[in-house]
């Protein structure tokens, strides 16, 4: 199967490698591009760090050498990135923002004395981790460390080919895809989305089929491609 990988680099190349290992032909054509930001980092009162993406890990660790706090990661890939960056105490929620909120609330809400959970995030986060944590009684501070910039036109690698399927890893990628893909091209593709939120913008675009992963991780997403 010819599969369009629409996520930003460096994740796109990693996904392409997994697709090749499964016998598929990846077409790497990102709809998003990551740009890292340079905010002032305030570590006062921080007792833990919450990461919701590998880009968050990279965006934060390029700013400061500090690794002196436990980390809560949204999933195993993000947890792996945090360990590779030098954090030694890392817990994975193995899920989504809801699961991460639950993990942090159960672990951190009763910590005494109270300390902040720092969330290095996207400028436009897909989920409201900070709001969910605050509602759970956890003190939290958001720190935007990267932004994702949308493609203005359909990537040439896709414009000159007809993929059998497209992988959608984020709601923003779904919105960009919905804007750029014409119904005739969509009719020849199945869209595989990381979650129902990622699939939602694709409704009404004319895709042959839209399927969402059972769990919000890439292993579950790629499992959808099994015949």
Task: Give your account of this protein's structure.
With 227 residues, the chain is an alpha/beta fold. The protein folds into two domains: 2-32 and 150-223, Rossmann fold (3-Layer(aba) Sandwich); 42-147, Rossmann fold. The chain contains ten helices and eleven strands. The chain is elongated and about 60 Å long. The N and C termini lie close together (10 Å).
State the main characteristics.
six-stranded mixed β-sheet, 227 residues, five-stranded parallel β-sheet, 11 strands, 2 domains, Rossmann fold
The value of Rg in angstroms is 18 Å
**CATH architecture tag of the largest domain:** 3-Layer(aba) Sandwich
Shape annotation: elongated
- Please, what is the average pLDDT? 94
Placed side by side, the strands forming the largest sheet appear as: 3-8-7-4-5-6
- What number of structural domains do the residues give? 2
Q: Count every beta strand, where a strand is a DSSP E run of 2 or more residues.
A: 11
Structural class: alpha/beta
Instruction: State the helical fraction.
Output: 25-40%
What is the highest CATH level, the class of the largest domain?
Alpha Beta
The poorly predicted ranges are none
Order of helical and strand elements: EHEEEHEHEHEHEHEHHEHEH
First-to-last CA distance: 10 Å
Count of helix runs: 10
Short description:
With 227 residues, the chain is α/β, with parallel strands linked by helices. Helix content is 33%, strand content 24%.
SSE topology:
Blueprint (H helix, E strand, L loop, with lengths): L1 E4 L5 H11 L3 E4 L3 E5 L9 E6 L2 H8 L9 E3 L2 H9 L5 E3 L4 H12 L7 E7 L6 H7 L4 E11 L5 H4 L5 E4 L2 H10 L2 H4 L3 E4 L2 H4 L9 E4 L5 H6 L4
Parallel strand pairs: 1-2, 1-9, 4-5, 4-7, 5-6, 7-8, 9-10, 10-11
Antiparallel strand pairs: 3-8
